[in-house]
Every structure is written in C-alpha cells, then in structure tokens.
Amino acid sequence: MRPILHPATVPYPLQQAVANHSTNWNRFAGKAAVSAPLEVLQKGLCAYCQIRLDSSIGSHIEHIWPKCPHTEKTFLWNNLVLSCTHSDAIRSTRNTGGVSCGHSDGKRDWSRHDSRFISPTESDCERYFEYQAGDGTVQPAVGLSAPDFERSRFTIKLLNLNCRRLCRLRKDMLEEGYRIIAELMADTTALGYFLDCELAEVSGKLPSFYTARQQHFQVFSPRDLTA
C-alpha cells in the first residue's frame, strides 16, 4: 500500500453528481473520467496490493468507505481509488488463487466502515506493513504499537492480501530479485543499473509490488552501500 493523496481538482462528473445529490453509482456515466486521473495518481498500481492495473485481471473503481451504508460518500473524490480485478474477472481470479482488495469477500461483505481499516489515503499507510521473502506474505510491520498492529492485521485479513495468488506473485518477484542481486554483487555498476530499473517509474507507472521491492532491494544500492 502506498499513500494516495487526491488533488484538490475534482473530476467534473463527480462535481455534478454531488451537486445533484446522486446516490446511484451503477447509473453514473462519468466513470471513465474518474478512472483516468486515478490511474495517473496511483502510478498504475492497485491501491491495496500494488499489482499493475493493466494486468490481465483488470481493475475497477473502488469505494474506500462502502457505498451502501455510506451513500453520502458515493461520489466523494477522496473516497475513490482504483483497485485490481474487474468484475468480469472475479470468478476466474477466485479459481486461480483468490480474490483480493476491493472485490475480496471481506470488503464486499463489509457492512460499515471500521476505524481499524488502514486506508491508502492515509499519508503514513506504508509504515504498517512489511513483506516476507520466504513465503511472499505481507505482515504487520515490526515495532508497531498494539493498536497499530491490530489495524494492520485487520486490514490484511479484510482485503485478503495473503491469498495464494498474491503470495505466489510476491514470492516469485522477490526470489528472482535476490537471485540477480547475488549474481551482480561483484559488479557495482551493473548492480546499480539493475536496482535503478527495479525501482524506476516508466511512462508514469511503477513496477508491481513497488513497496516490497523498496523494502528488500533498496538496501543493496551501491550508493547506500558506500554512504
């Protein structure tokens, strides 16, 4: 999870919906005008798990506060993010390792917003999580206070961030990265180039699992090693 800080400029279709006191999201015709700036804001990553939004399972506009019990927030700009998995891909994704994030069973059945939930709109949301190379899981970060530990645990479970699919993808990515780093340790120029590519933003998009890459690989940067 990375911080998503919405700019003050609200997409015009949302302004209209709020002005008209609209509550019916399914009939909202301005979704494309909302998705486009969100994808730029999120640098091409799912707001929760950080897989690429242009992956084969697609994406959808997600309401952080569930829209059924919180109809007044249905069209609020800072309540909207892009989450992985298009509605058409839910069944196939469930069959290949589990549905996570906005379409997880926990999030879809969430009857009312819970203050334990860590929102990607919180500026310090990254500090709650750490990523394990051994099994690809995401866990509460070491050193959290008891209330913060519970918030992290609750959020991971609600969003199903440790489904088999995500753990497999994270584990494979980290294993491959560590393998290449080990091969390049004697060549600081090549190692630096590899790490720059691993953490580079290309055409406004970041690589998948960007925070996990940072946590595990940035320490090997030749610049850090010689500091």
Q: Main β-sheet: number of strands, strand sense, barrel status? A: 2 strands, antiparallel
Give the radius of gyration: 19 Å
Shape, per Cα inertia axes: globular
Secondary structure: number of strands? 4
Helix content: 25-40%
Strand order of the largest sheet: 1-2
Distance N terminus to C terminus?
A: 28 Å
Q: What series of H and E elements makes up the topology?
A: HHEEHHEEHHHHH
Mean pLDDT over all positions: 92
Strand proportion, as a percent range, falls in: 5-15%
Number of helices: 9
- Counting helices, strands and paired strands, the structural category is mainly alpha
Unreliable spans are: none
Q: How many independent structural domains? A: 1
What's a quick, concise take on this entry?
With 227 residues, the protein is mainly alpha-helical.
How would you explain this protein's 3D organization?
Helix content is 38%, strand content 7%. The chain is mainly α and 227 residues long. The protein has one domain (12-225). The protein has a two-stranded antiparallel sheet. A two-stranded antiparallel sheet has the order 3-4. A hairpin with a 6-residue loop joins strand 3 (129-131) and strand 4 (138-140). The two termini are 28 Å apart.
